[in-house]
C-alpha cells in the first residue's frame, strides 16, 4: 500500500528536494505541499495524507500550532517534525502537541523514507536515543507541564506501567519483550491497551506522558 505524504516547509528547495527523494520510492507518494502551518491544516483535510512532514518555524501558523490543530481535528495523519538541529527547543513542544516523531533536515534519502515508513506503521519512536534525549532535556523547560492524570494512571496494570516506563526509555517492542521475557505479540497488546487507557495516539506520546507523570526521571 502506498504511503501518502504531505510536505510542509516554507523553503521551496526543501519541499522540492524531499518530494524528489520520496517520489523515487515505490511505496511512497507525495500528494501535496504546503508553505505554512495554516495551509498544512487545510491540505490535511483535503488530501488525507498518511504522514505529514512538518517544519516547525514557518510564517502565519508555525508547525507546533499546525500539529495541534491537525491532532485536534482527529485526522489520521501522523505528523513527523522536521528540524535543523537534533536539540531544537521546539521539538519537545511539537511532541507534546501530538507529533509522532522527528527527522533532521539533513537526513539521507534512506533515512527520510525509512522515517516515513516507521511513522506510517505506528512505530512512532523514530530515533529512540535522540528522542529520549529531547524528552529528557526539554521536559524540564516546559512552562506548564501537564499534571499526571491520576485517574488514567490508575487504570494501568502493574505490567502495563512497567511497559510504559520501558517505552519512555526508548526500547522497541522486541527489546521490551526480551527484557520481560515474554512474546513480542504480548508487548504489542500491552502497548495498545496503554494507548487506549491513557487516550494517547502513539508510542511517542506515551513516552512524553511517562516523563510528565514522573514515571521516568529526566537526567
Keywords:
five-stranded parallel sheet, alpha/beta, 219 residues, globular, Rossmann fold, 52% helix, single chain, 2 domains, Arc Repressor Mutant, subunit A, 5 strands
Any idea how many domains? Answer: 2
Q: Averaging pLDDT over every residue, what do you get?
A: 82
What structural category arises from helix and sheet content?
alpha/beta
Name of the CATH first level of the largest domain: Alpha Beta
**What fold name goes in the CATH topology slot of the largest domain?**
Rossmann fold
Catalogue the unreliable spans: none
Envelope shape: globular
CATH superfamily of the largest domain: Response regulator
SSE order, one letter for each helix or strand: EHEHEHEHEHHHHHHH
Cα-based radius of gyration, to the nearest Å: 17 Å
Report how far the terminal alpha carbons are from each other.
Answer: 41 Å
- In the CATH hierarchy, the architecture of the largest domain is 3-Layer(aba) Sandwich
Count of DSSP-assigned helices? 11
Strand content: 5-15%
Characterize the biggest β-sheet. Answer: 5 strands, parallel
- Helical content (DSSP H or I, runs of 4+): 40-55%
Q: What is the count of β-strands? A: 5
Protein name: Response regulator transcription factor
Organism: Streptomyces niveus (Streptomyces spheroides)
Domain Response regulatory: 4-120
Pfam families: GerE, Response_reg
Amino acid at each position: 500500500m502506498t504511503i501518502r505524504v504531505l510536505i510542509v516547509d516554507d523553503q521551496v528547495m526543501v519541499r522540492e528536494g524531499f518530494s524528489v527523494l520520496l517520489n523515487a520510492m515505490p511505496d511512497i507518494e507525495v500528494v501535496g505541499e504546503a508553505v505554512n502551518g495554516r495551509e498544512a491544516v487545510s491540505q490535511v483535510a483535503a488530501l488525507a495524507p498518511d504522514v505529514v512532514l512538518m517544519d516547525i518555524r514557518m510564517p502565519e501558523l508555525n508547525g507546533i500550532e499546525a500539529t495541534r490543530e491537525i491532532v485536534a481535528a482527529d485526522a489520521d495523519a501522523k505528523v513527523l517534525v522536521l528540524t535543523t538541529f537534533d536539540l531544537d527547543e521546539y521539538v519537545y513542544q511539537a511532541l507534546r502537541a501530538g507529533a509522532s516523531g522527528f527527522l533532521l533536515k539533513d537526513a539521507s534519502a534512506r533515512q527520510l523514507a525509512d522515517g516515513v515508513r516507521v511513522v506510517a506503521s505506528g512505530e512512532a519512536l523514530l530515533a529512540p536515543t535522540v528522542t529520549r534525549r529531547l524528552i529528557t532535556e526539554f521536559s524540564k523547560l516546559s512552562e506548564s507541564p501537564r499534571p499526571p492524570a491520576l485517574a488514567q494512571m490508575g487504570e494501568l496494570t502493574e505490567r502495563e506501567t512497567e511497559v510504559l516506563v520501558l517505552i519512555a526509555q526508548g526500547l522497541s517492542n522486541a527489546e521490551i519483550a526480551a527484557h520481560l521475557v515474554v512474546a513480542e505479540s504480548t508487548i504489542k497488546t500491552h502497548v495498545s491497551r496503554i494507548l487506549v487507557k491513557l487516550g494517547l495516539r502513539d508510542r511517542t506520546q506515551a513516552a512524553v506522558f511517562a516523563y510528565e507523570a514522573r514515571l521516568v526521571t529526566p537526567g
